[in-house]
């Protein structure tokens, strides 16, 4: 169970921000390797892209896109507090972040089809 | 008290010992308007005289009675039992987190105040005495920024709540940095070059990750997060101007 | 982290805020109706703006990510000091190398 003093929005925002960042750092080298397979010709990149059309992989792609959107919007929150002294109503700010991320995720899913 | 009804009882678990120890349970009567400090005092006077804890003013001015109540750091004299008792009529009392435990509910505050010194959280008058009184207009942004943080009485609640302090023993912490920010905004102070140095090391303001637990729990409604953000901006603009 | 690392992280964060917005927007647009290598390469081949934009994107990420990871490692593990800094500098070089290689790969292919 989460410690009582952790059940507050700033901590949740910071944890999602941190964990999404770590996930993206792990994902990036794989992403770069995949793209560089184009060096072996379009066919090599295509065969990789074919893998990504499998349902599980397509789902993971959505997860990655959402993770990126999450990290960015929560990072913007940090920048707003630090650089622009945003006296946030955390709940409002977090709601906007989540809404933006959901929009991105949904658009991605819709466009994939 | 005869025939005490279920709802008139209060179960209290209190930390006993130092870094290692155990929780000791007590059962007390619920009374109207009880504060947690009342509860601790009753335990020490009526049940177990060996319990160690701190208090002084009892009225929310000194901050000595700070401890962790049901997982949250707060002043026990300003915490009504009725506020925190939602969790099944049970109170859990622990010493402040991130401090070395002296005994039971009393913690060692030395490192906390040493970090204030490290952060240069003290007024620096400069080598020469000022020629005349300083004119400090209350409505200026600088004075308002200083005023927002000068009510800090060093109770340690923010330091206890801070995750970065828990993760990095060297981190100066919200109280020390908040005090440094009030002095950065004090137009009479002459020590800001050294102070910005002091708060921009690896244990300084940039280690804050805006969890905002300090702001959430400060009993005086001070917002150390924004003081620390102010320090970050000051450190960044200094770095951009080529001094760091 | 030192003031300089902090500055680098926040500055690249601002750059990345813009770059990621563009990247996400592009991806959302580009994946409509499925994505093939030909689609990607048609956009990127010989496209100088693409090369510059994504080149800068890679540089920014190669600075931003390792500094962030450094905080995580120092706070959540016992690893700190010189060896951690060197390991993360190597990771930065890895990201830079693989990233620029990928950008060039789709530029020339």
Oligomer: heterotrimer
Helix percent band of chain B: 25-40%
Q: How many strands, what sense, and barrel or not for the largest sheet of chain A?
A: none
What's the overall geometry of chain B?
Answer: elongated
Structural class of chain A: mainly alpha
At CATH level 2, the architecture of the largest domain in chain B is: Orthogonal Bundle
Bin the strand percentage of chain A: under 5%
Ranges of chain A with pLDDT <50 over ≥5 residues? Answer: none
- Number-wise, the strands of chain A total 0
Helical run tally of chain B: 10
Following the backbone from N to C, one meets helices and strands of chain B in this order, namely EEHEEHEEEHHHHHHHH
Number of helical segments with 4 or more residues of chain A: 4
Work out the helicity level of chain A: over 70%
Q: Look at the structure and give the CATH class of the largest domain in chain B.
A: Mainly Alpha
Which class of secondary structure composition applies to the elements of chain B?
Answer: alpha+beta
Euclidean distance between termini CA atoms of chain B: 68 Å
User: For the largest interface in this structure, which chains are involved and how many residues does each contribute?
Assistant: A-C, 40 and 38 residues
Can you put this structure into words, describing what you see?
The complex is a heterotrimer of chains A (113), B (244) and C (109). With 113 residues, chain A is mostly helical. Chain A is built from four helices and no strands. In chain A, helix 3 (55-84) packs antiparallel against helix 4. The longest helix of chain A is centred in the middle third of the chain and has 30 residues, at 55-84. By secondary structure, chain B is α+β, with helices and mostly antiparallel strands. Chain B has two domains: 6-107, Beta-grasp domain (Ubiquitin-like (UB roll)), CATH 3.10.20.30; 109-240, Alpha-helical ferredoxin (Fumarate Reductase Iron-sulfur Protein, Chain B, domain 2, Orthogonal Bundle). Chain B is built from ten helices and seven strands. Chain B has helices at residues 36-47, 81-84, 110-118, 141-147, 157-161, 163-167, 174-184, 192-199, 213-217, 224-240, and strands spanning 9-17, 21-29, 66-69, 72-75, 90-94, 100-103, 106-108. In chain B, helix 3 packs parallel to helix 7, helix 4 runs antiparallel to helix 7 and helix 7 (174-184) runs antiparallel to helix 8 (192-199). The longest helix of chain B is centred in the C-terminal third of the chain and has 17 residues, at 224-240. The termini of chain B are far apart. In chain C, 84% of the residues lie in helices and 0% in strands. Chain C contains four helices and no strands. The chains are: A mainly alpha (113), B alpha+beta (244), C mainly alpha (109). The interface between B and C is medium-sized, with 16 and 12 residues.
